[in-house]
Amino acid sequence: MSEHASRPPTPRKGPTELPSVTEDFRLDGCNTFGLRATSRYAVAVDSEDALAAVLTDPVHGGLDRRVIGGGSNVILRERYDGLTVLMRVRGRRLIDERPDAWIVEAAAGEDWHDFVGWTVAAGYPGLENLALIPGTVGAAPVQNIGAYGVELADRFDSLRAYDRETGDFVRMDHAECRFAYRDSVFKHQPDRYVVTAVRVRLPRPWQPVTTYADLRARFAGGGADDPSPREIFDAVVAVRRSKLPDPAVLGNAGSFFQNPVVDAAAFDRLVAQWPDISGHRQADGRVKLSAAWLIDRCGFKGARSGPVGVFDRHALVLVNHGGAAFSDVMALADRIVAAVCDRFGIVLVREPLVL
Q1: Catalytic one of 88, 90, 93, 182
Q2: Is 351 one of the catalytic residues?
Q3: Which of 39, 72, 255, 297 is catalytic?
Q4: Catalytic residue list contains 105
Q5: What pLDDT was estimated at residue 17?
């Protein structure tokens, strides 16, 4: 056990006393978009036992139940007539140190960015390209988060989750999670599994990933030829802060739309009409387009519609200028989808989950 580690909470033995349930709970501060929202009931859980007890509690048996972590990738409706479970299970630790990898685990309620910073500081590099992504560890596999040339799936080992169908805690490996671009089994079965801990496999020896254009330019232009994990971590943080709004200052859910992927023939047709269109060829021959480029060309970058708008430095980010509600966000999102489809024949897919 590393001196830097803190052991995740151990499930309690015997009957578990239910945590205190709050009625008419305001969720404005529980989602990074800062949307006005209320849950009929809410409860915070800090252990696996508490989670299982709340999800099977017969007192609130007739109510729908949902679990929210950091609320960084959700769009909340104004009223939820059910029980919102706030994931607060904490802890992180080194599980194993092998010749070819470090196996590191974090509980679902841990802040993702803090976890990444801890791994770098503790000498377990490999996640530094995923720095400053908002949200909790438990949300990371749901979306298969990715940035600057690395996806969670590239570093994933396994996870522990509560299976609401069977009432058991299960361990799921890479194949069972069915990772794809911003996708996983958890998005296709959203009401079945609740992630409680995630293990990552950080390869040894460590190799820097600087293939992303902004990182390549930063290190080739006057920086280190062989950057350290901390230098990459700091560079990613700097790049993200230069492009993306701080949710604490301007409410947002990060990238609001996925970058669409088209076949090569479709991309060639788009290039013939728009020679400057942005696209990156994938290993399977398809091309990933820039949703931000498409939205910008439709004139939405920096646009505002009442309390919501499109960030003026990144067209992929919708923002809350203050007092926005679910209907405001979805109305603007629908306008953007319609405009991009009308002009380019491409249907954008929303990234955040609607709850």
Answers
A1: 182
A2: yes
A3: 255
A4: no
A5: 66
